[in-house]
Specification:
By secondary structure, the protein is an all-alpha fold. It contains 2 helices and no strands. The longest helix is centred in the first third of the chain and has 16 residues.
Length: 49
């Protein structure tokens, strides 16, 4: 199920933008969707990133 969530978000972004998600977007997907889905809190990013 968690893999399906990540895959769906990546595909949605790719279809909406017409390009592959960049590294920052992929990191956001992991931090904001996948990790919480498995009960893990993402580490906080340093200010300004």
């Amino acid at each position: 199920m968690v893999i399906d969530i990540g895959e769906a978000l990546v595909l949605e972004i790719a279809f909406d933008s017409g390009t592959r998600p960049d590294e920052r977007t992929l990191t956001d997907i992991v931090d904001q969707a996948i990790l919480p889905a498995v009960g893990v809190t993402a580490p906080s990013a340093p200010e300004g990133t």
